[in-house]
Amino acid sequence: MLVDAIVVGGGLVGSAIAWGLQREGLATVLLDEGDLAFRASRGNFGLVWVQSKGLGAPHYQRWTRASAEAWEGLASELAAGTGMDCGLRQPGGVHLCLSEQEFADRAARMARMKAEAGNYAYDYRMLDAKEVRDMLPGLGERVVGASWTPYDGHANPLNLLHALHRAFKAAGGRYVPEAGVTGASAAPRDFRVSTPAGDFAAPRIVLAAGLGNAKLAPLFGLAAPVRPQRGQVLVTERTREVLPIPTTSIRQTDDGTLLLGDSQEEVGFDLHQTQDVMAMIAQRAAWSFPWIARLNIVRAWSALRVMAPDGLPIYDESEEFPGAFTANCHSGVTLAAAHARLFAPMVARGALEPGMELFSARRFAA
Ligand SMILES: Cc1cc2nc3c(=O)[nH]c(=O)nc-3n(C[C@H](O)[C@H](O)[C@H](O)COP(=O)(O)OP(=O)(O)OC[C@H]3O[C@@H](n4cnc5c(N)ncnc54)[C@H](O)[C@@H]3O)c2cc1C
């Protein structure tokens, strides 16, 4: 089947890009491996988060801010086109500090983020214990302060994924499940891939297969040295208490449950959950808000982040085979708007914009 563009990977990154391409008028096919694959998109925490992104990498800070700013438009467009509510709330967010050392480290980090932002306004405040208590009633004695920015928020990531798929199909895109790419041939602006669901050809291809990109990218003259990083998440029963704004590791969903998370573990492709990590997550949540200790945990899971060696996204275009692109990141909820509304139009035009080379995997070779 010949189309204008192939996107490999039907997670949050691939779906946002595929919808963006279809929206640009390109007949696009979205190929996805299936339910057995590792899928960060179905196991994440749902933050649309800005405040800690891009230390030492102002281009990533700007990219994240641009996405957070475009998120409201994304959510409205998805709601209008699919009837689905992505649950976006952007009331700002806090990072709670549970010791003087954590507070000092956080203050230093936020000051550096602001300095690196240059002319780009970066509004933040370090809140002392009283100020955070005024903002978040029910806070525990161990909380010594917090950082706050107005840019942060959260969303329902499963609704987002579902809405992106629906919008893509409604715009005329073709989604093919059980279509893991098993073979490929590449020539400039001429790509062919084989899958159990058939063969596909196009002058453009975007590799957005999450951890699967590590194997696929070299077939197209690209590199995607991503590794798995495990995160565990706990869900409480619904609670009467209201958490008005999300924190880095505690947020309240629309239906009243609390999500507690999320660990950062270097354990390869091991998807087990472990008691010690779950206990640590629950303990920190109860230190932050003692009333959480009386809630039952009703669900828990682990999932694998898609992590580059320096933690930043990888966006690239192949020098050897023009028309082939990669996209990998560990903040696919936050960056969904950037992928659909900024990245996809660049691919549609045939080249990434100046400035995007800072995200190239060539930075690792250097
Ligand atoms: C615990 C945890 C918490 C997180 N919290 C947040 C958060 O709060 N905010 C945020 O912004 N981000 C968060 N993330 C990160 C976010 O979930 C990921 O950045 C995002 O889901 C990555 O999406 P993806 O599409 O690249 O990868 P995936 O979701 O892994 O999807 C990759 C897809 O590619 C397909 N695939 C793989 N190989 C092939 C192949 N050969 N052919 C065809 N298809 C293939 C798979 O079937 C899969 O569907 C979190 C992640 C985790 C694990």
From TrEMBL:
- FAD dependent oxidoreductase domain sequence ranges: 4-344
Keywords, A to Z, come to: Oxidoreductase
Question: E.C. number, please?
Answer: 1.-.-.-
* Alphabetized GO MF terms: oxidoreductase activity
UniProt KW Ribonucleoprotein keyword: no
Alphabetized Pfam families for the sequence: DAO (PF01266)
InterPro entries with a match to the protein in the record: FAD-dep_OxRdtase, FAD/NAD-bd_sf
Entry keyword annotation includes Oxidoreductase: yes
The enzyme's first-digit EC class, named in words, is: oxidoreductase
Name this protein carries in UniProt: FAD-dependent oxidoreductase
In its UniProt entry, the species of origin is given as Sediminicoccus rosea
